[in-house]
Write a structure and sequence with these properties.
The complex is a heterotrimer of chains A (382), B (290) and C (307).
Chain A: H1 6-10, E1 24-33, E2 42-52, E3 57-61, H2 68-76, E4 83-88, E5 91-92, E6 103-106, H3 118-128, H4 133-146, H5 162-174, E7 180-184, H6 192-209, E8 212-217, H7 220-226, E9 229-234, E10 237-242, H8 244-249, H9 254-259, E11 264-270, E12 275-278, E13 283-285, E14 295-300, E15 306-309, E16 319-330, E17 334-341, E18 347-354, E19 367-372, E20 378-379
Parallel strand pairs in A: 3-8, 3-9, 6-7, 7-8
Antiparallel strand pairs in A: 1-2, 1-4, 4-5, 9-10, 11-12, 11-14, 12-13, 14-20, 15-19, 16-17, 16-19, 17-18
Helix pairs in contact in A: 3-4, 3-5, 4-5
Chain B: H1 23-51, H2 67-74, H3 76-109, H4 115-127, H5 130-152, H6 160-184, H7 189-196, H8 201-230, H9 233-238, H10 246-256, H11 260-289
Helix pairs in contact in B: 1-11, 2-11, 3-6, 3-8, 3-10, 4-6, 6-8, 7-8, 8-11, 10-11
Chain C: H1 24-61, E1 65-66, E2 72-73, H2 80-83, H3 88-120, H4 124-139, H5 142-153, H6 158-166, H7 177-202, H8 205-213, H9 218-246, H10 250-255, H11 263-269, H12 278-301
Antiparallel strand pairs in C: 1-2
The chains are: A alpha+beta (382), B mainly alpha (290), C mainly alpha (307).
The structure holds adenosine-5'-triphosphate (ATP) and magnesium ion (MG).
Chain lengths: 382, 290, 307
C-alpha cells in the first residue's frame, strides 16, 4: 500500500512563512449568529486563537452548545467567520468556499449520499477534482482496503451498519489526501463497544496516514485517549490548550477541572508565596508566586490522594489532612471513599484507591489521614 | 399531496393491540370502508359500462358496441380539442416544472429579503378558486391585447397560447409545493458534504440535490400534467372562439344535454388520467425496488 | 495571499494584520441571498406578470362602470359594484354557497373519519394498497367523474330506476341541491381522507393504551385522547373541502339547476353574454378571494401545510 496522504500533507505551501508552520491557525476568530427577532446575536465562537501543528491529532472538547461544531464548520468553509483570520498551512481561507479548501470533513451523521454506492461515495471527491479514471479506481481500492470495507463496494449506505457507514465517511474523506481532516463527533452514533474499537482504529489510521486530524467531541475520555493535544471550550471561548496530561493533571480553571474527570476542589487562603491554609486550618504547599491573603481554589484528583490510618507515621514530603470515612463505594477496579475533613467548616474529599492486594481497606467511621504529593494539587485561576 | 408519500408505513400494530378497535366496531368500520370504496368506484364503472351502450338514449341499454368510440375518433372537433389539451398540458408542465423547482430551491435553501412576500405569491394560486383565477386572467388578456392592438396595431386572439400561459401560472405553485415538501425532508448536510468534496455549486446540485429530489420533481410534474388536463374553468374563460381543450368541449356539450358520445369522451379522459397515475406509480415503485 | 482578505474599508475598525475585517461575512451572506433570489426570480416574475397583475386588474375593474351596452367603461370610478354585494339575490346565493359547502364538509367528515381510522389501523401492506385505491379517483379527471353522477342521477339513470323498482316513483334527484352536495362530496372526499389519515396514523397509539390503562372505556378514550389529538387533521381536512366547495363552478353547473346557482356560477355569468357586468363580477371575485384567503390562513394556522 502506498503511504496515503503523507506526501501532500507534508509539502510546504508556497505562501507559508516561518510563523505559519501550523496546519490550521485561527486568530481572533469570532462567529455571531443573528438571534431571534429583537434579541442579541448569539456569539457561538468568541475571539479564539489557536494553532494546530501539522500531523497532530487535535481535539476540540467541550459541553453541548459550546461552539465546537461552529469552529469546525468555519475551518471547513460551511460558515464564514464574523471576524478574525483562518489559515490552513499559511494560506488565508476565511471566505473561500468549501470546495476550494484543502480539508475534508467527516460529518457527525456521516452525510453519505444515499443514492450512491459505497464506491461512488468514495470516488465523488476525486471525480470532482477530475482525477483520471484509472487513478480513481486505484485510490478507491486502496482506501477501501484501509478501512476494511472489501466486498461492500456496491452496497448502498442504508444497507450498512453504523460502524460501516462511519468507515465509508472516513474513506470518502481520506481518499482525497486532505491536508487536514475535520471530524465532528464521528463516533457519536455508535454503541459503546464499537466506539471503543473505532477509537483505537481511528488513532492508528491517523498515525498511518500522517494527516492532521481536528476532532470534535464532548466525550472527555475519548479526547484524553486519542489526542496529542486538546483544546477545552466553553461558551464559545477557549479555556485551555494542552496535552492530555497537562489538561488532566493541571487544569487551569474550575470548569476544566470539573469537566474532565472527577476532582476535589478545596478553598484555601494563601499565607505566603508557597503555603496556604485550608478551611480546616491545615497548612499545605502551593505553587510559587501566589499573593498572600488571597483565597484560591485547589484542584486535586481523587486517585492522587492516599489514605492512611490516623495514627500512622507522617511523611514530611507530603501534605495531609485528617478526617473520618463517611461512605465507602466498591467500584470493582477501585474503592471510593468519602472523607469528612474538619469540624466547623467541614468539607468532603473523594479518595480513590486501587483494588490491589496490599492496599489497605477502610470502613465507615474510621479516622484517617488523607495525603498527597504537593505538586499534584493545582491552583486554579478562578 | 405528493403521490410518492402515500406508501409511508408507520409502526405496525400488533394483532391484539387495544389501539385496534374491538370486533363489532371493527366490523362497522370495515363496512363503512367498503361503502366508501363503492361510492368512489361505482360511478366510474357505470360510466364506463354505459359508454359501450349502442342506444342513443343514455339510460336505455340496447347492446354492447364500440359505436360511440368510433364516432369520437372520427369527430374532428373532439380530436382537435384533444390535441390542444395534450399540447397545452405538455408545454405548461415542462415550463412550470422548471420554474416551480427553481422556486422551491430558492425558498427552502436560501434566506433573503422579501422572501415572505414571494412565499405568499407562490401559495395564492393554490388556494384561489378556479373561477376567480379564470376571471382575473380573462380581464388581463383582454386588457393586454387591447393595449397591444393600440400600440402595435397587431390583433392578438385568445387560444392555445393564452391557455398555456394560464396553466403555467397555477402549475408553478403546485410544482413548488410538492418539491418543497421533498426538499424540506432532505438533509442539507448532504449538499455541504458535496461542497466539502470539491463539488462546485452546480456539480453539487446536479450530482446530489437533483437526484435526491427527483421523485418530488416527478410528482410535481405529474400533478401539473393532471391539473392541466383537468382544468375546465380557466381554459373556458381564456380560450378563444376557435380553439378549446377537451374538458371545455365536454363541459359545453354537457350543458346542452347528455349524449352517448360525451360518455365515450369522458371515459377517454378518465381512463387516460388513471393510466397516467398508475403508470407513474408503477415506475416509482420499480425505482424504489432497484 | 488571496485577494478577498484585502479590507475594502479600514476606517471603522482597524483590522489587525492578516485579519478579516468585520463585515465581509455579511457580504458573503448577501451574495448567497442574491443567488437565492436570482434562482427563484423567473418564477416570481412569471407570477407577478400572470397572477399579481391580473389580480390588480380585477381590483381596478371592480371600481369601474358598466355602460348600458354591457361594455366596461374604465373611468368614473365608484363603489357601486361593492354596494350591490348586499342585494337580496347576492345574499341568497352567498348563503346557499355557504350552506352547501358546510353540508358537503360535514358529510365528508362523517364518512371520512371512520374510513381514515380504518385505513390507519390496517397492517402496513394493506394500508399501502388501500391508500393507492383512494388516490386513484383523486388523480383522475374531475369533469368525467362529475359527469358520471349526471348519468347516475338522471331520470332514466340506474339510481332512479332502482328506486322506482323499490317503489319510490317521481323521484327527482338531478338538478337539486342534494345532487350538488353529492357531487361535491364525491369530488373532494380524498381532500378530507388524506389529512385525517395522516393525523390518525401519526397518533401515538400507546396514548390510547395509556387512557385504557387509566380506566377509560373505548368511547371515552376516543373522545378524550384520539379525537383531540387528531383535531388538526379534522380542521385541515374541513378547510380543504370547504374552500373548493364554496367556490365550486363545474359541479353546480352539471348537477345543479336554476335553484342551485352558487357564487362561482353567478360570477361566471357576469362575464358572458349580453347580461354581462364585468365590474360587478370583479367585485364579487374580490369578495370571494377575501373569504378564501382568510380560510386558507386558518388552514396554515392549523399546521396543515404538510399534507
Ligand atoms: N446556524 C445557527 N444559527 C443560530 N445559532 C446557531 C447556529 N449554529 C449554532 N448556533 C448556536 O451557536 C452555539 C454553538 O453551537 P455549536 O453547534 O457550535 O455547538 P457544539 O459545541 O457543536 O454543541 P453540540 O455538542 O451540541 O454539537 C449554540 O448556542 C447554538 O445554538
Ligand atoms: Mg456539534
Amino acid at each position: 500500500m502506498t503511504e496515503l496522504g503523507t506526501t501532500t500533507a507534508r509539502s510546504a505551501p508556497s505562501a507559508a512563512t516561518a510563523a505559519d508552520a501550523s496546519a490550521v491557525s485561527l486568530h481572533g476568530v469570532t462567529k455571531r449568529f443573528p438571534g431571534g427577532k429583537g434579541t442579541q446575536p448569539v456569539v457561538a465562537v468568541d475571539d479564539i486563537d489557536l494553532d494546530i501543528v501539522d500531523g497532530e491529532f487535535f481535539s476540540l472538547l467541550g459541553p453541548s452548545g459550546c461552539g465546537k461544531t461552529t469552529t469546525l464548520r468555519m475551518v471547513a468553509g460551511f460558515e464564514y467567520p464574523s471576524a478574525g483570520s483562518i489559515r490552513i498551512f499559511g494560506e488565508e481561507v476565511g471566505l473561500k468556499p468549501p470546495n476550494r479548501r484543502p480539508v475534508n470533513t467527516v460529518f457527525q451523521s456521516y452525510a453519505l449520499f444515499p443514492h450512491m454506492t459505497v464506491e461512488q461515495n468514495i470516488a465523488f471527491g476525486l471525480e470532482m477534482k477530475d482525477v483520471s479514471r484509472k487513478e480513481i479506481a486505484q485510490r478507491v481500492g486502496e482506501v477501501i482496503e484501509l478501512v476494511q470495507l472489501q466486498g461492500r463496494e456496491k452496497s448502498k449506505p442504508r444497507h450498512l451498519s453504523g460502524g460501516q457507514q462511519q468507515r465509508v465517511a472516513l474513506a470518502r474523506a481520506l481518499v482525497n489526501r486532505p491536508k487536514v481532516l475535520l471530524l465532528d463527533e464521528p463516533l457519536g452514533a455508535l454503541d459503546l463497544k464499537l466506539r471503543q474499537a473505532m477509537q483505537v482504529e481511528l488513532k492508528q489510521m491517523q498515525e498511518h496516514v500522517g494527516i492532521t486530524f481536528v476532532y470534535v467531541t464532548h466525550d472527555q475520555e475519548e479526547a484524553l485517549t486519542m489526542s496529542d493535544r486538546i483544546a477545552v471550550m466553553d461558551g464559545g471561548q477557549l479555556l485551555q490548550v494542552g496535552t492530555p496530561e497537562e489538561i488532566y493533571d493541571h487544569p487551569r480553571t474550575r470548569f476544566v477541572a470539573d469537566f474532565i474527570g472527577e476532582t476535589n476542589l478545596l478553598e484555601a487562603v494563601v499565607v505566603d508565596g508557597t503555603t496556604a491554609t485550608l478551611t480546616d486550618g491545615t497548612r499545605v504547599r502551593v505553587d510559587n508566586g501566589q499573593t498572600s491573603g488571597t483565597t484560591v481554589t485547589l484542584a486535586i484528583r481523587p486517585e492522587k490522594l492516599g489514605l492512611r490510618h490516623i495514627d500512622s507515621e507522617r511523611n514530611a514530603a507530603l501534605d495531609a489532612v485528617t478526617g473520618r470515612v463517611e461512605r465507602v463505594t466498591f467500584l470493582g477496579n477501585a474503592i471510593a471513599y468519602e472523607v469528612r475533613v474538619g469540624q466547623a467548616q467541614a468539607f468532603d474529599l473523594e479518595v480513590r484507591q486501587g483494588n490491589a492486594p496490599g492496599i489497605e481497606h477502610f470502613a465507615v467511621g474510621d479516622e484517617v489521614r488523607v495525603r498527597w504529593v504537593p505538586s499534584s494539587a493545582s491552583v486554579l485561576e478562578d | 399531496m405528493s403521490l410518492v408519500d402515500t406508501t409511508g408505513a408507520g409502526p405496525s400494530l400488533a394483532e391484539d393491540s387495544v389501539a385496534r378497535p374491538r370486533r363489532t366496531v371493527d366490523r362497522i368500520l370495515a363496512g363503512n370502508a367498503w361503502l366508501v370504496f363503492a361510492f368512489l368506484y361505482l360511478p366510474i364503472l357505470v360510466l364506463i359500462a354505459l359508454s359501450f351502450n349502442d342506444n342513443t338514449r343514455v339510460g336505455v341499454w340496447t347492446e354492447f358496441s364500440f359505436r360511440w368510440y368510433g364516432e369520437m375518433f372520427g369527430h374532428t372537433r373532439i380530436m382537435s380539442a384533444l390535441r390542444t389539451s395534450i399540447l397545452v398540458a405538455l408545454m405548461s408542465t415542462a415550463v412550470s416544472t422548471v420554474l416551480g423547482t427553481a422556486a422551491a430551491l430558492s425558498m427552502e435553501r436560501f434566506r433573503y429579503r422579501g422572501q415572505r412576500a414571494f412565499d405568499g405569491l407562490l401559495y395564492l394560486p393554490v388556494i384561489i378558486p378556479d373561477i376567480t383565477m379564470a376571471v382575473m386572467l380573462l380581464l388581463f388578456f383582454v386588457q393586454a391585447f387591447d393595449i397591444v392592438l393600440l400600440v402595435t396595431g397587431v390583433g392578438l386572439s385568445r387560444g392555445v397560447g393564452t391557455i398555456t400561459l394560464a396553466h403555467i401560472a397555477f402549475n408553478i405553485s403546485f410544482v413548488a409545493l410538492v418539491v418543497r415538501a421533498r426538499l424540506a425532508g432532505l438533509d442539507s448536510r448532504l449538499e455541504e458534504a458535496a461542497a466539502d468534496l470539491y463539488a462546485s455549486r452546480w456539480q453539487a446540485f446536479r450530482r446530489v440535490t437533483l437526484p435526491l429530489i427527483a421523485p418530488g420533481v416527478a410528482g410535481g410534474a405529474l400533478l401539473a400534467l393532471t391539473l392541466s388536463l383537468d382544468d375546465v374553468v380557466i381554459a373556458e374563460f381564456v380560450s378563444g372562439a376557435g380553439t378549446t381543450t377537451l374538458p371545455v368541449y365536454v363541459f359545453g356539450a354537457v350543458r346542452r344535454g347528455v349524449s352517448p358520445l360525451i360518455n365515450a369522451v369522458s371515459v377517454l379522459m378518465l381512463v387516460g388520467s388513471i393510466l397516467l397515475v398508475v403508470g407513474a406509480l408503477a415506475i416509482s415503485r420499480r425505482r424504489v425496488e432497484t | 495571499m488571496s485577494t478577498i482578505v484585502t479590507p475594502p474599508d479600514l476606517d471603522e475598525q482597524p483590522a489587525r494584520p492578516g485579519r478579516l475585517p468585520p463585515g465581509l461575512e455579511v457580504k458573503a451572506e448577501k451574495a448567497a441571498s442574491r443567488r437565492g433570489l436570482f434562482i427563484g426570480l423567473p418564477a416570481y416574475v412569471y407570477l407577478i406578470l400572470f397572477f399579481a397583475l391580473p389580480l390588480a386588474i380585477v381590483v381596478v375593474y371592480s371600481f369601474a362602470t358598466r355602460s348600458v351596452t354591457g361594455l366596461t367603461v374604465l373611468g368614473d370610478w365608484n363603489l357601486r359594484s361593492y354596494g350591490r354585494l348586499t342585494d337580496p339575490l347576492v345574499l341568497r346565493i352567498a348563503w346557499r354557497s355557504t350552506w352547501i359547502a358546510t353540508f358537503t364538509t360535514v358529510v365528508s367528515l362523517v364518512v371520512a373519519y371512520p374510513f381514515a381510522y380504518y385505513l390507519a389501523t390496517r397492517p402496513p401492506k394493506v394500508r399501502a394498497i388501500l391508500l393507492v385505491l383512494v388516490m386513484i379517483p383523486f388523480w383522475s379527471n374531475f369533469l368525467a367523474r362529475t359527469f358520471a353522477w349526471r348519468l347516475l342521477l338522471s331520470s332514466d339513470g340506474p339510481f332512479v330506476r332502482l328506486m322506482e323498482f323499490v317503489g319510490y316513483t317521481d323521484l327527482r334527484l338531478l338538478f337539486t341541491p342534494t345532487a350538488v352536495v353529492l357531487g361535491l362530496v364525491y369530488g373532494y372526499l380524498p381532500f378530507m381522507i388524506l389529512p385525517l389519515y395522516a393525523s390518525i396514523e401519526r397518533l401515538d397509539h400507546s396514548l390510547v393504551e395509556a387512557a385504557r390503562d387509566l380506566y377509560a372505556s373505548g368511547w371515552e378514550a376516543f373522545r378524550k385522547v384520539t379525537w383531540p389529538l387528531t383535531l388538526p387533521g379534522v380542521i385541515a381536512g374541513s378547510i380543504l373541502v370547504f374552500i373548493p366547495s364554496f367556490g365550486a363552478y363545474v359541479t353546480p353547473e352539471i348537477l345543479g339547476g336554476t335553484g342551485t346557482t352558487m357564487l362561482g356560477n353567478y360570477i361566471g355569468r357576469q362575464f358572458v353574454g349580453t347580461a354581462s357586468d364585468w365590474p360587478f363580477g370583479s367585485a364579487l371575485s374580490v369578495a370571494i378571494l377575501f373569504v378564501m384567503t382568510i380560510a386558507a390562513m386558518a388552514y396554515f394556522r392549523s399546521g396543515g401545510k404538510n399534507l
